[in-house]
Amino acid sequence: MPERAVSARKENSRRFSIPADNAAEREVMIVLPDERDPLIHRIVKKDIPQSARDQLWNGKPVAWFNNFGIRRGGRFVNFAYSVIIDPPDGDHTLVYFDGKSVQPFAGADLDRSPSDHPGKWRATLRLGDPPLGWGGG
Length: 137
Fold this sequence. Notes:
By secondary structure, the chain is an all-beta fold.
């Protein structure tokens, strides 16, 4: 799948904002962990893969809103990092596509009221190439 360079806004040495390219997308902030060297990471923007486009959650289509990749040394990363997003409009589940199926964020991997980002949601990912979306409620 073609990748394109992201005009990610670097907020500090660990935070990058991935812009929305159209009205269906949402901006996503990536927060890398402290112990990683952000200078050797490459952030790319990707199209939603065809294998994810027809996926369902609770019997309803997923509304995909962003797909990015974080590479280190040419490979997608596999360490835990955070994404900060605006909450959904309505009763939806935050989901990602792991390459095979739609997975929900739940438990400790989803904070709906992070103290350092009021009004946002924080989700923890361990996948360097995740389409993100809203699953039907």
